[in-house]
Structures are given as structure tokens and as C-alpha cells.
């Protein structure tokens, strides 16, 4: 009976564990936009706002008032912006809330037509054009950034306020009493109209244009037929007083059978970087899920035949090469071509420290000898441990990896040609040559292509630097942005993610 009572307790405990792990899920990728990055966004936002406002239409202003010519109805129509100038603006974090755009000292000039008509007989009327100068214009708008249920980033204008200092009007062809009418009635209406217009246009820029650009954030990025990257946001971004952090799942997944990796990202140090516009922490978790997905897909294998070796390779794939290393193999099959079937037996593992990136691959190699009649006969299996030192870099918008040195450990696992003795020292020579000419080359063919950074369309990474840290590589970079009209179509390249383990 003791068992029975313990089960609910265990279940409750497990549920608690699940909740607490969920609440503290570390991101696989953390993306930070610094003050410098926001300043850059500011320059783009202000330029877009300027273009947008200049083409905005302004509603007619109408009313009626007592004037020296009697009670009149008046209207200002066809009002349009001639110029808009924003000499000073700031795009900043609003700690704990979101972002804030502040504009001050802006000025604008507008033109339009004026018209009035006396309400009673003799219905005196008049009209002409007018010019309007507005100065000391301010705007402050805050925006909320978040993540929707599908992990897409969202942005929405929250509160907006605008004020206008001085408004000067010049009525062409107008009587002087018009200025009194303006001072006592129209001035206030124009200010209200303009303030509303500024907030409306800015909100629209955020709610539509910015939202549309953000919608190109690649929450799911196809890498090849074996893998997609999950770049979903795992929580709302965090806004401190000097940067905004975006927390991204950062996990490779199988497109056909996605599942959670049985390991999780290590927590990242807070740090306070600010020299570059953007910082991206790429955790070992992300790289390790790539290894997991490719291992599970069974694609980390390679068959090495004599023709796959470089033409002038010093160790031909022939039993002659093994004459001294495995004498028995040569005795049984003298001067016969060989074939090696190599595959990884565990997911490749990445482990980064400030000293660099270690990559380790564990696999096996099956050796076959080709007979006179063309068929292959299995001879033995070796176990291999490969450890490599790699460097993470950024090329165009891709995170890439490059292996410089490789060390190979070897052991005999089984033999189909009876007891064999292997001269391990001699074998190591051959393996080192293989490692240098085949393994490094193959690893780098995959690594140099890399995979894309989580950025919206139109962003170009420039002057990126990569620094290894404890369980992560930190990419520090500036960016350049060119607004895109339509999201580029996702291409699905056919992957050739093979590694040779010989
Ligand atoms: C991506 O990761 C998020 C967060 O763990 C998860 O909710 C979502 O289902 C994943 N997306 C896919 C396509 O698996
Ligand atoms: C969010 O920012 C605050 C500072 O404003 C910081 O104390 C907190 O640790 C941050 N949270 C995360 C998850 O980074
Ligand atoms: C080896 O990888 C290829 C894809 O590169 C795959 O089609 C094949 O099934 C794999 N073979 C084994 C024995 O896992
Ligand atoms: C082998 O040939 C390649 C090109 O065919 C050449 O780059 C390389 O230097 C040669 N290696 C040796 C050891 O001769
Ligand atoms: C080739 O020869 C071997 C050994 O003599 C034999 O077992 C095998 O069946 C032969 N294969 C073919 C395709 O004839
Ligand atoms: C490879 O490493 C594993 C674990 O470190 C070890 O158990 C195994 O014996 C090694 N194999 C070889 C061939 O060195
Ligand atoms: C970036 O990575 C993707 C996915 O692996 C690849 O298709 C693309 O060619 C890479 N781009 C560059 C410039 O290497």
C-alpha cells in the first residue's frame, strides 16, 4: 500500500519539476540589441517617419465664427505637408516595458486653401491659399514588444503624446480679420489635428510597417532536408536601461519528427556589452542539437573507396598499405583494393570554453576488401574517437565553423579474419594523414556553409567578431538594414551533411 500513496506525491513532485523547469528554460540563443543598435534603428525610423508624414493627408478643418463681415462658415482644405524636419530624436529602451521613440524640436511647413462664406445674405465669400509653419514639435511614443503563442516577435504602439509650440499662418489674398479668426479658433484646431496626425502616422509605422518587417523573423528556418532550426521566442524580450534582450529557443530539429533534445542550454552570464549594435550568444546547446538531429537522421556516415581519396594521397586504399600495420589482412588478401564504411555511433559533441571550441566525434569504421570477382568481403571494425579544435565565425549572415586540427584515437572492435595484431603506431600515421586530408576537409565543407543567424529580412551583419566563452560563442556585430518590400522566398537547399570518419 505504501506504493499507492507515494505515486500522487511523486506525480505532484514531477509536475512541480516540470513547471519550474519550464519557467526557467534557458534560451539556446540570446540576442541583444544595445543602445548603439537602437540608435541605428532610430536613424531608420526617423527617415521612414519623415517619408510617411510628408505624404500623409490631413483632414479639412471647418467651423463657423463671428467676424467683422458677419457670421461665417470657414474651411481649410487640401492641407498637405511641404517639409518635415526632425533634428533630434532618441530611440531608447523603456526598462521593463519596451521601447520608446522621442522626437523634439521638430518643425514642419504645410500649405492648403482657405475659404469662408457668410451664413446670411448677402453671403459674402472669399478664399485663397495659405502657408503654415509649425515649430517646437515633440512626439513621444512607447511600444510594446512581445512574443505571440507561435514564438513570433510582435510589436505594437502603446501610448503616444505629441505637442506643438508655435504655429504661424499666412493667408494669401486674405483680409486682416482672418488672423484674428485664426488666433481665436483655427490655431487650436490645427494643433489638435497635427498632434493626432503625428501620433496616428507614427503608430501606423509601428503597427504596420515595423510589425510586417518583424514578421520575417525566421522562427523556423529550413537548413536542409534533415534539419530545421527553431528560432521561436521562448519568452517576452527583456528591457533594461541600456539594452533589449531577445530569448530564442535556438534548437535544431528534425522536420519530420521534431522532439525535444534530452539536454538543455546552460545559463548565460548577464554581461554588459555595448560597443557593437548587436550581440548574439550562440550556445553549445544549439550546436549540439544539430549533432543530435544529424545523428538521429543517420546521415553521419560515409563510404570511402579508393577513388574518393585525393589522387596523390600517400596511403592508397589497398591491402598493401596495411602490409606492416595489419600483416594478417595482407597475407589473406594481398594487393586488393579496400572500402571503408564509416559512421558516427553517438551524436557529435561541442564544448566551448574561453580557450576555444572542442568538437568530438565517436564512430566506427568497417573495413572491406574487394575480391577479384568484384564483391566485397567484410574484414574488421575499428572504433574511432575524433577530437577537433574548431573556430566559430560569421560569414555573410551565416554562423560557420572551421576545424583546424584533429586528433584521432583508434581501437579494434571486432574482426572477421580471426585474431589480428595491429601496429597501432603505424596505424596512427595513416590515420593522421586521413584526418588531415579527409576528415578536416569534409568537416569544413559542412562547417564553412554554416547556418543562418536569427535576423529579419533586410538585415546584413557587418564587422562581426566571435569570442568563445563558457558554453557559448558570442557574436558581436554591427548591422546594416535595407527595408525589404516582400519577404524573400525560403529556399530549401539539398543538404550533403556527411562526415568522413576513417
Ligand atoms: C519551437 O520551440 C518552441 C519552444 O520550445 C515550441 O513551443 C515550438 O513548438 C517549437 N516549434 C516547432 C516547430 O517544433
Ligand atoms: C531583465 O532585466 C533586468 C534588469 O532590468 C535584470 O535584472 C534581469 O535579470 C533580466 N532578466 C533576464 C531573464 O535576463
Ligand atoms: C548514410 O547517409 C545517407 C545520407 O547521406 C543515408 O541515406 C544512408 O541511409 C546512411 N546509411 C546508413 C547505413 O546509415
Ligand atoms: C596533391 O594534389 C593536390 C591537387 O591535385 C595538391 O594541391 C597537393 O599539394 C598535392 N599534395 C601532395 C602531397 O603532393
Ligand atoms: C565472389 O567470390 C566469393 C569468394 O570466392 C564468393 O563468396 C562470392 O559469392 C562471389 N561473388 C560473386 C558476385 O560471384
Ligand atoms: C572513445 O572515448 C570513449 C569515451 O571517452 C571511450 O569509452 C572509448 O574507449 C574511446 N574509444 C577509442 C577508440 O579511443
Ligand atoms: C547559409 O546557410 C544556409 C543553410 O545551411 C545555406 O543554404 C547558405 O548557402 C549559406 N549561405 C552562405 C553565404 O554560405
UniProtKB/TrEMBL annotation:
Name by which UniProt lists this protein:
Bactericidal permeability-increasing protein
Residue ranges the record marks as coiled coil: none
Any one GO molecular function term: lipid binding
User: Where does this protein come from, organism-wise?
Assistant: Desmophyllum pertusum
Family assignment?
A: Belongs to the BPI/LBP/Plunc superfamily. BPI/LBP family.
Q: Which domain of life is it from?
A: Eukaryota
Where does the UniProt annotation locate this protein? Secreted
Keyword list, A-Z: Disulfide bond, Glycoprotein, Secreted, Signal
Q: What is its main location?
A: secreted
Which N-terminal residues, if any, form the signal peptide?
1-23
> Which residues does the UniProt record annotate as the domain Lipid-binding serum glycoprotein N-terminal?
32-257
Question: What does UniProt give as GO cellular component?
Answer: extracellular space
The record ties this protein, via InterPro entries, to:
Bactericidal_perm-incr_a/b_dom (IPR017943), BPI/LBP (IPR030675), BPI/LBP/Plunc (IPR032942), Lipid-bd_serum_glycop_C (IPR001124), Lipid-bd_serum_glycop_N (IPR017942)
Q: Which SUPFAM superfamilies match?
A: Bactericidal permeability-increasing protein, BPI
| Location of the Lipid-binding serum glycoprotein C-terminal domain | 272-477
Whether Signal counts among this entry's keywords is yes
- A Pfam entry, by short name: LBP_BPI_CETP_C
Which cystines does this chain contain? 160-199
Amino acid at each position: 500500500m505504501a506504493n499507492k500513496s507515494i505515486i500522487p506525491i511523486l506525480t505532484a513532485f514531477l509536475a512541480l519539476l516540470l513547471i519550474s523547469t519550464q519557467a526557467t528554460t534557458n534560451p539556446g540563443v540570446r540576442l541583444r540589441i544595445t543602445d548603439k543598435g537602437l540608435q541605428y534603428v532610430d536613424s531608420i525610423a526617423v527617415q521612414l517617419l519623415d517619408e510617411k508624414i510628408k505624404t500623409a493627408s490631413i483632414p479639412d478643418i471647418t467651423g463657423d465664427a463671428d467676424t467683422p463681415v458677419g457670421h461665417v462658415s470657414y474651411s481649410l482644405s487640401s492641407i498637405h505637408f511641404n517639409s518635415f524636419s526632425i533634428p533630434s530624436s532618441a530611440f531608447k529602451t523603456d526598462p521593463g516595458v519596451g521601447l520608446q521613440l522621442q522626437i523634439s524640436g521638430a518643425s514642419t511647413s504645410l500649405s492648403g486653401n482657405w475659404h469662408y462664406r457668410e451664413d446670411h445674405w448677402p453671403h459674402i465669400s472669399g478664399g485663397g491659399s495659405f502657408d503654415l509653419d509649425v515649430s517646437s514639435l515633440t512626439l513621444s511614443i512607447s511600444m510594446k514588444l512581445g512574443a505571440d503563442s507561435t514564438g513570433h516577435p510582435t510589436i505594437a504602439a502603446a501610448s503616444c503624446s505629441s505637442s506643438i509650440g508655435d504655429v504661424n499662418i499666412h493667408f494669401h489674398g486674405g483680409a486682416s480679420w482672418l488672423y484674428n479668426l485664426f488666433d481665436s479658433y483655427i490655431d487650436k484646431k490645427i494643433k489638435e489635428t497635427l498632434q493626432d496626425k503625428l501620433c496616428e502616422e507614427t503608430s501606423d509605422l509601428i503597427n504596420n510597417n515595423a510589425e510586417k518587417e518583424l514578421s520575417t523573423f525566421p522562427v523556423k528556418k529550413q537548413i536542409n532536408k534533415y534539419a530545421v532550426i527553431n528560432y521561436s521566442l521562448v519568452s517576452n524580450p527583456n528591457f533594461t536601461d541600456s539594452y533589449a534582450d531577445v530569448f530564442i529557443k535556438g534548437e535544431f530539429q528534425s522536420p519530420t519528427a521534431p522532439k525535444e533534445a534530452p539536454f538543455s542550454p546552460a545559463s548565460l552570464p548577464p554581461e554588459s556589452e555595448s560597443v557593437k549594435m548587436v550581440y548574439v550568444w550562440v550556445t553549445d546547446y544549439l550546436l549540439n542539437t544539430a549533432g543530435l538531429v544529424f545523428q538521429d537522421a543517420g546521415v553521419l556516415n560515409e563510404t570511402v573507396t579508393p577513388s574518393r581519396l585525393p589522387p596523390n594521397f600517400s596511403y592508397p586504399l589497398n591491402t598493401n598499405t596495411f602490409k606492416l600495420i595489419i600483416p594478417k589482412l595482407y597475407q589473406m588478401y594481398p594487393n586488393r583494393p579496400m572500402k571503408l564504411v564509416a559512421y558516427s555511433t553517438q551524436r557529435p559533441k561541442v564544448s566551448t570554453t574561453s580557450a576555444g571550441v572542442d568538437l568530438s566525434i565517436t564512430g566506427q569504421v568497417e573495413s572491406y576488401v574487394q575480391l577479384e570477382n568484384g564483391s566485397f568481403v567484410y574484414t574488421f571494425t575499428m572504433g574511432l574517437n575524433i577530437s577537433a579544435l574548431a573556430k566559430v565565425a560569421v560569414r555573410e549572415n551565416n554562423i560557420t565553423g572551421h576545424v583546424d586540427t584533429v586528433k584521432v584515437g583508434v581501437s579494434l572492435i571486432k574482426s572477421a579474419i580471426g585474431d589480428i595484431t595491429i601496429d597501432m603506431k603505424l596505424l596512427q600515421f595513416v590515420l593522421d594523414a586521413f584526418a588531415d586530408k579527409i576528415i578536416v576537409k569534409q568537416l569544413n565543407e559542412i562547417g564553412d556553409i554554416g547556418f543562418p543567424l536569427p535576423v529579419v529580412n533586410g538585415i546584413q551583419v557587418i564587422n562581426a567578431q566571435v569570442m568563445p566563452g563558457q558554453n557559448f560563442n558570442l557574436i558581436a556585430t554591427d548591422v546594416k538594414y535595407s527595408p525589404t518590400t516582400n519577404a524573400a522566398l525560403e529556399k530549401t537547399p539539398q543538404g550533403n551533411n556527411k562526415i568522413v570518419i576513417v
